[in-house]
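Sample intake sheet
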Amino acid sequence: MSTNLDALINYAIMGSEIQRGNGRKWTEEEDAFLEENLGYLSEEEIGRALGRSVIAVHLRWERDLDLPAPSKAPDILTAENISNILGLDDHKIIGWVDQGFIPGRIMAGGRKIRLVKRHDFMKWVLDPNNWMYFRISNVKDAELKKQLEKAAKRWGDEWWSTPRVARYHGVSTGDVKRYIKLGRIKATQIKYSYGGRHPTRKWSYWFVLKSEATRIDLTFIRRYQPKKTKSKDEVK
C-alpha cells in the first residue's frame, strides 16, 4: 500500500514539474552547477539560477544524482568537524569562519551550519602562520597530526607566547611586551579573536618566533618584577 502511495506521490510531483515547464532534461552544466553550489546556495536560489523549481532541484540532487547532504559531503567539513579535529571549542571555529579567517560559508537554510571545503582547511591548517591559534599536540586526527609534525620539523621554528619568552629570559611578561612596543623584539599580534567570539584587537595576544626570542644579542633591562609562582606547599 505504501509503495503504491509513494508511486502516486512521485507521479504527481513529476506531473507538476512538467506542467511548470521543468520536464526538460538536465544538462551536464546544470548538474555541475548544482553539485558545486549545493549547500552554499539554497535550493530556491539554485532553482532561480537554472530556471527550475525547488522540487526539481531537490529531486535531482537527492534522487537522480544521489548526492550526500551538504554537511555530509566527503570534501566538506563543518565547524564541529574542525573543532573535533583540532581539539578546540566549536565557538572558536564558528567565529573564525564568520570572520573570514578560515575560508567557509554558512550552509543555506535556517540551521546556520558553517561549511569549509576540506582543501581550504588543509591549506589553512598546514600554514605555520596559523599555528599560533592551536597546539599541534592537541590535534585529534592522527594522520593530520603526523603531517603537521613533519611540516613543523621542516619549518624548524615555533611560536612562543609572551609569558614563555619571559620565563626563558627570567623577566616579566611586562618587560617582554615593553620590548615588543619598543621594536626590540619582532612579534606578531594575532589578527583574529583567540576565543572566536571577540574580534576586537584589544583582546589579541602577541607571539614571538623561538628563533627571535632566543637571539644571542637579545638582553633585557628589567623594569618589572617577575611574578613569583607559588609552590604547592605555599598554595596549601
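Comment: The chain has twelve helices and six strands. The chain has a mean pLDDT of 83.
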